[in-house]
Amino acid sequence: MISFIDHGAVVWFAKTVGLIYLLVMAIAALVYALWPSKKAEFDAAANAILSNEERP
Predict the structure, then answer these.
(1) What is the 3-state secondary structure (H, E, C) of 1-54?
(2) Cβ within 8 Å of residue 6, ≥6 positions away
(3) For the chain, domain boundaries
(4) Maximum Cα–Cα distance for the chain, whole Å?
(5) pLDDT digits (tens, 9 = 90+) for 12-49
């Protein structure tokens, strides 16, 4: 079997693409969390547990 790609190239590719993927997903999550139109939805979710709490 002929190997066109050696182990070092595969490791380099996996580390590089993995780092780029991690950074892109972190930025996407940050943008989603800080998007101004989502504030009302997040506030409602944060207070939903408090409004549905059973009282003694």
Answers:
(1) CCCCCCHHHHHHHHHHHHHHHHHHHHHHHHHHHHCHHHHHHHHHHHHHHHHCCC
(2) none
(3) 8-51
(4) 73
(5) 999 999 999 999 999 999 999 999 898 898 888 888 77
